Amino acid sequence: MNQERILVSSVTYAIKGRDLLRSMGFKAYIERSKGQLEHSGCGYSIYVSDDVERAEQILRDHHIKVLGRRGRDEG
């Protein structure tokens, strides 16, 4: 199972992204980052258990601002 999270710039993007991915058949969840990181905005990310590459591309294609990815055990 993939342990990466897709970092987004706001809680609004996290909610929109989660809902979009769910509508496309992904099991997607919003997670709050453990630590506040300067580049991660308000510290929200979207976790998907499978095919994180495809999920990230779908978010980008739908203009969800993606800041990057991190492992679930990272901040």
Architecture overview:
It is a single chain. The protein is of the alpha+beta class. The chain has one domain (4-71): Alpha-Beta Plaits, CATH 3.30.70. The chain has helices at residues 11-23, 52-61, and strands spanning 4-8, 28-32, 44-48, 66-71. The protein has a four-stranded antiparallel β-sheet, covered by helices on one side. The longest helix is centred in the N-terminal third of the chain and has 13 residues, at 11-23. It is globular and about 25 Å long. The chain starts with a strand and ends with a strand.
What is the fold's blueprint, element by element?
Blueprint: E1 4-8, H1 11-23, E2 28-32, E3 44-48, H2 52-61, E4 66-71
In the CATH hierarchy, what is the architecture at level 2? 2-Layer Sandwich
| Total DSSP helices | 2
What is the chain-wise order of helices and strands? EHEEHE
Strand order, main sheet: write it out.
Answer: 2-3-1-4
- Kindly identify the CATH topology: Alpha-Beta Plaits
Question: Which short descriptors sum up this protein?
Answer:
alpha+beta, Alpha-Beta Plaits, single chain, four-stranded antiparallel β-sheet, 28% strand, 75 residues, 2 helices
TL;DR of this structure?
The chain is α+β, with helices and mostly antiparallel strands and 75 residues long.
